[in-house]
Amino acid sequence: MLATAHTFTLDGISARPVRVEVDVHRGLPGFQIVGLPDAAVREARERVRAALSNCGFEFPLRRIVVNLAPASLRKAGPGMDLAIAAALLTASGQLEWEGLARVALVGELALDGSIRSVNGALAIAEAAREGGAEAILVPTENGSEAALAEGIDIVPVDSLARLPALVGGEWEPPRPDALPLRLGSKPGGPDLADLRGQPHLRHALEVAAAGGHSLLMIGPPGAGKSLAASRLPSILPPLATVEALEVARIASACGRLGESLSGGRPFRAPHHTISPAGLIGGGAPPRPGEATLAHRGVLFLDELCEFRRDALEALRAPLETGEVSISRASSQRTLPCRFMLVAAANPCPCGRGEADPDCSCAPIAVQRYQGRLSGALADRIDILAAVRQPSAAEIGGAPGEASADVRGRVCVARERQERRLGLGRCNAEMTPAEARECALDNEAAALLAELYARQRLSGRAHDRALRLAQTIADLDGAETIGPEQMAQALQLRRRDRG
Question: What predicted TM-score, i.e. pTM, was given to this entire model?
Answer without folding.
Answer: 0.90
